[in-house]
Amino acid sequence: MYQIRNLEIHASYSCNLSCKSCSHFSDQQIGKNVPLEEIASQMMQWSGRIQPKMFSILGGEPALNKQLVQIVRECRKQWPFSKLRLISNGFYLKNHPELPLALQQAECDLEVSVHHGGEEYTEKLKPVRELLAQWSSRYNFVLKYRPSASKWRTTFEGSGSEMVPFNDGNPEESYKVCVAKNCPQIHEGKIWKCPQLAYLGMVDIKHQLSEEWQKYLSYRPLYPTCSDAELQQFFETKAEPACAMCPSCHRHFEIPSPLRI
Length: 261
Ligand code: SF4
Ligand code: SF4
Known about the structure:
Number of domains: 1
Structural class: alpha/beta
CATH topology: TIM Barrel
Low-confidence stretches: none
Bound molecules: iron/sulfur cluster
Shape: globular
Strand content: 15-25%
Mean pLDDT: 96
CATH class: Alpha Beta
Number of strands: 9
Helix content: 25-40%
Order of helices and strands: EHEHEHEHEEEHEEHHH
């Protein structure tokens, strides 16, 4: 088994929030939920070869997927030795009353990302915090809040068909400052270096990206038919030419409220 730090899978490409410059492109309406069967069969191609220390279920917003409880159970089944975590913005967890028991039984942490510090957002999050306080008092699972809005940064400019890469021309430097370097994704049965490379093709299908993106769209992920040597090489490669699409220094900005009107 080849050991890696973290491996991630989407339970949904869709999101109830719209965070400007979402690194998973979930604010770009690129797709919907991923059916349980599809998640299970994608993971099955890798779970006999890779041992991630952490396995992360996310999106998009995973709680938009009605099969979330079964997905949590399936992930534990396929990654019995990994630390398991579910990352959610919290607002739709109320639709999954069986989730706290599943989290307890699967020993899955729940990490709630907080995407804005404004009054309206904070007020809307109150019932979520109350519900999770109740769940926590009755079930045994780890609950954490992540201050995701602080130090918000972008890895591209514009939106939809107007999106443009940074093209800073210094992939080593872009990789050095990259916060997604330990976030490989299982997507369409393959493993992708990071969310940006994994879901860029879906943005292109939805918005027909400009010519500037073509060299990044031709990035080749790791296929399940790869040899052990190819697998090892994939995970040991740090910067690669595609990293040139990302900025070579952090481009922080204050995120506008991601609440949809
Ligand atoms: S909540 Fe997360 S997935 Fe949804 S738009 Fe914001 S950053 Fe993206
Ligand atoms: S392309 Fe490279 S620098 Fe950009 S997010 Fe992916 S790993 Fe990071």
